[in-house]
């Protein structure tokens, strides 16, 4: 599954989910690198 996470105040990364941490953060892999951050909420149509 592909997810988008934020790893800073304005930096986002999109990659394949490789794990989830107890504090709500998600780990995603992009090529050979793994990033950890908070998942971006899905946009909702009104």
From TrEMBL:
Domain of life assignment: Bacteria
Protein name: Translation initiation factor 2
Organism: Paragemmobacter amnigenus
């Amino acid at each position: 599954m592909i997810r988008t996470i934020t790893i800073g105040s304005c930096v986002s990364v999109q990659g394949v989910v490789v794990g989830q941490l107890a504090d709500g953060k998600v780990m995603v892999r992009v090529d050979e690198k793994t990033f950890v951050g908070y998942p971006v909420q899905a946009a909702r149509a009104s």
